[in-house]
Structure formats: structure tokens, C-alpha cells
């Protein structure tokens, strides 16, 4: 499969398959060294297609035999496919026998070994690494699967659907036979053979049906599955309640595995999860980990409808299921969070991650539309664009048609397409048809440009108050930047949620010219063209516009607001997202100014006082305060500036954080004291907000101590680290010490390691925390290289590899981007090493230099040289080749 030549798949070339596979009967003789796969397929020729040979995908397989209707036939291998001349009959049975070697499968795609168990990952194209097949999502079949294996090694044998039979065989072996009544594409197939135990719960759905929920983990991990099970039950209730979508299975299983390339996988009835998104206890997992479990369990569960019941016609439509399912899991998490403020906190988190991951992607060499047009390796397109921007695009629909209209659109979507493999157009059409009087239906073609145009739209807004007429005129214009291959871009459909605030903070009623009365103080303006002018009338006072409330469209906004305007929004906006945003904008303006000057960075009193006011404001929730007090990250700022010098940015931002630590010392002390949680640990929004603010306060206090030489706060942090009763507090205290390069950091790290050396997920934190500590004199980078030699470090476990490598490249720009280029040399070495082990992991890591053309010298040239060095390797995987080629294009 390591091909040197670029093999590009194009959306416009889509053709329905020449054959349909109706039923699949698989028998596995499981063994880590050599598993025998016997496959019996009932196939029908697609009479709408020209008669042609049967071409089956297959990769890294050892073929033993091929029979058509019981007779041997001739076959050949062509372009990595198994080709069988068109059988005479239009319907026939194909029997294939082949073997695979799970323990040699370090790619973790297909059937592979993790610990002493066997697991599968088939999305996107892993099934062809198990047996020859039409491995494409529009070929849907009913599967019956028999698993046979050693009973001691593999006491648990699982596959999709319902268990039909199980029993003993000779030689200490046993078997289990599973049947999945739902037609499904091969990417949703799964099997597990391992020594596992399960937490079980029986639940009755609203419809009165009984279901068995199971969460399978390794022996000893059972007590860490309660939160995952609760999240699963909550997901079930939520989907029935919000969308009328009940669980359609008698049995729903989640299996946790240590070695996994991604977060989790929605295989029908048998979700396979990275342990990171299943296992949690107060002692070993942080509040963020608990939230991650809730959202990923929700995400995979929601796929059962959006993804499995209706799947994708081809992989270009990936966002059909991923964008929609991310939208659903984000809504679920917001509903679970409770209060309006807690919802806003979730929204801010989602937008931060969109801006830090998707915006740079959309401005770099991997920029692609939510529905891509071409790929070399589909695994490279499980991106922030397809997932997070895809979700924002679904949210645009939601904003345009409202919550009820959206539910009606979902109902129509299922009524039309349940059981089929469809396209993004089908989804948008159902939403529009269910809401015929909405701006979506009126502008469906404009809306669909979100699917075809890449890049982040720029929205410019200018307002003009006319006191004599009591009008406020808002001039909105959008610009969709040209990108390679996408020049003449058309305006997009942008819902712009707005409010107007008088300078004293009062929310003004909103009445547009031509309307006979005001419609509330919060409304949505819809842009469909490059320029629009909106005139508000009866505006009794000069005002500040609050635009794009709740981040109503995934754009970059230039609203031209002054510091004074932003301070009004920051103090008074009823939209919590924009309150937060105003503070971030004030900070960003200051960081920008400092980057453009040679003077030492300094924050002005107005900004510091505004931050003090936030910390002192008793009406604000701690979780919100924590987010508001964090300066925009280096990753985000780097994307907002052209020709970035990461070292200068780091020193500017660090100096500003030092200043906030010093100037607000008293407030930090007060915030730390006021936010101690006395009640028993609960990972809910209220407690976790308090812990987050207390941890930030502690970090600031220890930082301040490192500036003054004071030893009291480092000592307190160490004590808190030792005494903490939960991981959030323990890690927060440890991080405060490590991030300020305190002398107590090393003893604390040693103690942390000793305490948790048997907890894989906590060891990941041990590495990650050191990998993302703020760089100081090159010490952090040196530490990372040292840690690569740590006995607990390994590149073969994706979580562990990510904990150190991705912490450096994605979380620590100043450690990575060095004037001596050592970071890039290290990167190139690692890409090359990882690529021989696990191409999906390697190509993900390779993306760390996506934005190299945006770097200032000397970084830029050094980065180019490192990329060229990787490119010179002749035998890169197609995954990594695609990333590197695009970076150099
Ligand atoms: N469908 C899975 C999810 O979103 C992720 C599969 C990722 N596959 C891949 N090849 N990267 O839950
Ligand atoms: Zn998904």
C-alpha cells in the first residue's frame, strides 16, 4: 500500500458501484499472529451500471482461495485490487478465504492487537485490511459474524448486533455468533476478542422497549466506568427527547481500548473507544476529562442515527454525518451544562477550539471545503473543517430555522432517507423543505456555498449613529478570500445575531426601517450578498453594536470598535459570548501593538482595571471569569498576524501574563480563597468552574512568586498538590509549579509519577504537562527530548506519542519554533519514524508545520528545509505524502 505515485480521488468522479453486496457471512479464526477470515458474500450486479469485472479492495491480505457459486474462478491483482471477471449470473455467491496478521498491524487500522486482545477500526478504509470487499460507504449489507478463538485468551467475543449463539469448541476454544439486522456499510463493522469485564445497565426507553447497555473494559477498570455509563444513559434520553430518536438496538456496547488512533468509533451497536474517553475517577481524571467523556459518548451514540441509520454516499460527504453529529454533541453538552452561563462557557470553549484548530487549517495548505473535492488519503480529511466547521454550518441552519424548524427538518430527513447513503445536499434540502418560509429555503443555493467554498469569510461592520433622525445604520460587508484553486468566491449566507447597547449598557429595542414596532433587543440579520445596509430606527441614544452574538457564523469579524466601545460590551453585554469576546479583542489589540513595536510589552491601566472588574464582579460565574482572564493563546494570535515571530510573541504574552499576576495579586488571592470547593467531588459545571478559577489563581500566584522570589505560594501549591483529593486540583497545583519553573516542580513530578505509574492515562498527563510548559531558555524543549528516553515513553501507543509530541507542536509554539531550527529537525525525524509505524498518526503530526509560510525569518526558511527533507524520503505513506506535498505546493 505504500505507493509513491499520487492517486487522487475526485468527488466529481463518483459512480454508483457496479455490484451490490446484500449479505455478508464472516467467520474468524482468531489468532494474534495469524487470523483466518472466511467470507461469504451474496452479490448482485447493479443493473444500472455497465457490465464490468468485479473489483474488490484489499490491503495487506494473504489470499488463500476464491470461489464463485462454489466453483473456483480465475482472478488477478490490479492496482491493489482483486479483479474477478464478471460472473455470468447477475446474482451469485462469492467465497473468499484469506489471512491477516493482527500483531504486525502497527497502523491500528483493520484488525489489530492491543495488549492481549484483538480489536478493529474500519473507518474509513480499514475493512479492506480484514478481507476483500467493496469497501465504500454506499455498499450496505446485512452481516452475520462467527468468532472463534481461545477461550482463556479471548473470553469475550463481540461483534455488531445481537448474539445468536455461543458455545465451546475443542482445544480450549469457544465461539460466538452475531447477527446485525441493520444494513450497514463496511466501515461500521467491528469485532472485539479480549479479556474484558462489563458494567451493565438495563434501561427502558420512552417507547417502552428494554435495552441492555454495556461498557467493557480491562479487569480492574470497572470502577472507572460510571461516568461513561451515566453519559450513555443521558445521551439516550436526550436524543429521544430533543429529536424523537430512540435507541433501535436491544444491546448497545461500548468497548475501551488502550491503543487507538482517534477518540472513538460509532460501529453499529459496538462502539469502540479510546480509553481516554471512557475511564474516569475523581482521583485520575480532570473535570475536562469528565466533560470529554460526556461529549464523546454522546457523539458516538448520536451517530447511531446521524451516520448509521443514514450514512454517507461517498467520503466527500463525511461532514454529513460528522458536522451534524458534532452539532448534536455540542447541543447535548450545553443542555447538560444547565444554566445559561454554563451554556455560554461551553460555547466559548467550542469557539476557541474552532479558532485555534480550524481557522489556521482553512488558511493553510490543507484548506478544503466542508465537503472536499479531492483527496489522496481520506484519513487526512477527518479534520477540524469537516467536524467543527461542519458543525458551525449546521448551526447556521439552526439559527435560520429555529429549534422547532430544525427538529422538523430532522424528521423530514429521516422520513426521506432512513436506511440510505446520501449527500450533504440531501440534508440541506430536507431542512429547507421542512421550513419553506425560512431564509434558508429562500437562499438555499447561497447557503450551500458553505459546502463548496473553503476559507474563513471576513465580515466587516461599520455603524453610524444619527442623533437627529434617531437612526443607527449598520453597513455589513463580507469578503471571501481567494485560495489556491478557489478564486472567484461568491458571498455566503451569514446569520448575524445583533443587539445594540447604549453607552450606559442598556439594551436598546430593535426596529428596522419599514417595521412598525420594535422586535425585542436581540435579533438575527441575514446576509446573502457581499454588502448589506440595515437601518435601525427610533434609536434614542448613541450605541455600540454587539455583533455576531453567540458566534452566529464561523467568520472573522472586523467591527471597527474602539477600546471604549469594547469596554462597554465587556461590562454590559447580555450576550455572554460577546462579553468574553470583547475582552479577548482588547487583549488581542494590545498583543498586536506590542508585536509591532520594539518596546517592552506593557498593559495599560484601562485593560488591567477591566480585568480587575471581571474578577471582582460577584454576578459572574467563576467558569466565565476564568475564560475572561486568560489572554488569547499564542496559537490563536499567530493565526491573526502575518509573518509571525513565535519567540517574540511568547515573550510579549508572557510579559503581559506576568503583569496580570502582579497587578491583580490581591484579587488572585481572593479568588483562590473564594473558590475552594468543600462539597464532595462532582464534575458538574458549578464545581468545575470554581476549580478552574482557583487553579488559574494559583498559577498566577506562583508565577508572581517566581518573579519576586517569594516562597510562600510555591510552598502552598506543593502542599495542595500533595493533599489534593481529585485530579483537577492535583494537576492544577502541579502545573502551577511546573509552569513557573519552580524548584518544587521536580520533586512534585517525581511524586506524581510514583503515585500514578500504573495509570496509563495519568502518565499521558505526566508527559503532556511537561511538553506544554511555557518555554524558558530552551529548557522545555530539552526536557521533551529527554523524556523521549523515559522508560514509560513509547511511540507505539498513540495517546502516549501524542502526549509529548503534540504537546510540543500543537501546544507549545515557543518550544517548537526555535531560532536554531532544532524543533524542526526533531519534527522531521519524528515524522519519518512515525510514518513507518503508523501513517495516520504520522500525517497528523506532519501537519504541525502547515502554517510555515506565515512564519517570519529565520523560522520560515528552516521550516521549509525540514519539510523538504521529509519530502525527499521516497517511500512515505500516501497519508504523509499528501500533507507534505500540499505543504510544499
Ligand atoms: N467516525 C469517528 C468519529 O467521529 C472517527 C473516525 C476517524 N477515522 C479516521 N480514519 N480518522 O467518531
Ligand atoms: Zn463522528
TrEMBL record:
Residues 563-889 form the Peptidase M1 alanyl aminopeptidase C-terminal domain. Gene3D superfamilies: 2.60.40.1840, 3.30.2010.30, Neutral Protease Domain 2, Peptidase M1, alanyl aminopeptidase, C-terminal domain, tricorn interacting facor f3 domain. Keywords: Aminopeptidase, Hydrolase, Metal-binding, Metalloprotease, Protease, Zinc. The keyword Zinc applies. InterPro entries: Aminopeptidase_N-like_N, Aminopeptidase_N-like_N_sf, PepN_Ig-like_sf, Peptidase_M1, Peptidase_M1_dom, Peptidase_M1_pepN, Peptidase_M1_pepN_C, Peptidase_M1_pepN_C_sf. Residues 455-558 form the Peptidase M1 alanyl aminopeptidase Ig-like fold domain. GO terms for molecular function: alanyl aminopeptidase activity. It catalyses: Release of an N-terminal amino acid, Xaa-|-Yaa- from a peptide, amide or arylamide. Xaa is preferably Ala, but may be most amino acids including Pro (slow action). When a terminal hydrophobic residue is followed by a prolyl residue, the two may be released as an intact Xaa-Pro dipeptide. Its cofactor is Zn(2+). It holds the Pfam family DUF3458_C. Residues 25-188 form the Aminopeptidase N-like N-terminal domain. Residues 228-435 form the Peptidase M1 membrane alanine aminopeptidase domain. Its EC number is 3.4.11.2. NCBIfam families: pepN_proteo. Belongs to the peptidase M1 family. This is Aminopeptidase N.
